[in-house]
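Researcher: For the annotation table, I need structure tokens for RNA polymerase sigma-70 factor (ECF subfamily). Please keep the output clean. Sequence:
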Amino acid sequence: MACAAPSDSLSTLYRDHHGWLAGWLRRKLGNGHDAADLAHDTFLRILAARNAAAIEEPRKYLATIAKGLVVDRFRRQSIEAAWLETLAARPEPLAISPETRALILETLLAIDRMLDELGPRAREIFLLAQFEGLTYAAIGERLGVSVTTVKKHLARALAHCLILAEGC
């Protein structure tokens, strides 16, 4: 069975707006290569997500998707830079192999995506419990919520962690 060709509406959308989108991204990023990658990724998202014929304002729609991809790229670069900075501070005998580095970076990115899915309150509660070691009562006091609320949000966050762990 042959793969289905992209719809005519997607071909038209690409032909009519790819150059504009790539130029818009190039101005935003100051880099033609990254702009080309993100323009390509934008159209892949449309191909995977919906019928291009239903898009009423193509440039607005393309810009919205592209902005999200730009944010994702900057977030990834920020996490990667923090990780590389942490690695650089390690003594040489404790250096980590490139394969292990890549696995750890992918895990950090997956955790970041998981935390984004929690919502701001659950994310904050999870981070306070895991990284600051605060008790339920201390978290509740700091955030002005009940211990029951803290437990509920922390349980939800830990459930997300389990789902993430099962996917690894």
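Researcher: And a one-line annotation?
Model: The first helix runs from residue 8 to 29.
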